[in-house]
Amino acid sequence: MIVVTGASKGLGRAICDRLISKGIPVFGLARNIDGIQFPSMACDVSSFDNVKAVAQRLKKEGLKVRGLVNAAGIASMNLAVTTPPNVSQDIIHTNLLGTIYCCQQIAPLMLRNKFGTIINFSTIAVALGLKGESIYAASKAGVEGFTRSFAREMADFNVNVNCIAPGPIDTNLLKGITSIQIERIISQQIIPIQFAPSAVSDLVEILLDERSRSLSGQVLHVGGV
Question: Which domain holds residue 75?
């Protein structure tokens, strides 16, 4: 069973669809699970109590969790000095604390089996220091730092922890960003094209495979920097 956050739309949904198409059981988490046809549970990852309730349910039902994909995230492209405090808090709580909470609560379900894979999500905005994405980049820089340290903590239990940092992917997360802004970001990638969600799903599938057991504590950039 692979637990995927942000499972109702965007990259999270694309990842769920890919795994299910490969016959891999998925348990999806999202704030709104209306329309989700696979096993799921309503969960706001920014709430520790919500995430704890998910872990308790998985444990109670005896589901064997072998992977966690922290795809839930929010963004707001705005200058730091004009970003309202509540927006900054929402971004940090969802992107950084949400990732930490899920790792804290779901990882223990893998420890008893001494096997598992955790995939967190960052952004190319961290590496490129993109203008107008200061708060978003700060939240994801925290995810990258957490991933590197958490990978070492989990190594003794044979649980790998990696981070995927995409460039602009064609999802609803780009809503409100102009095509000119998107092109400017893409031009700074090593491979200057806008990738579809399937490119990220491909990488997730690879990282979940046992052949990737030698890879942990890494930040992988879709598009390259």
Answer: 2-222
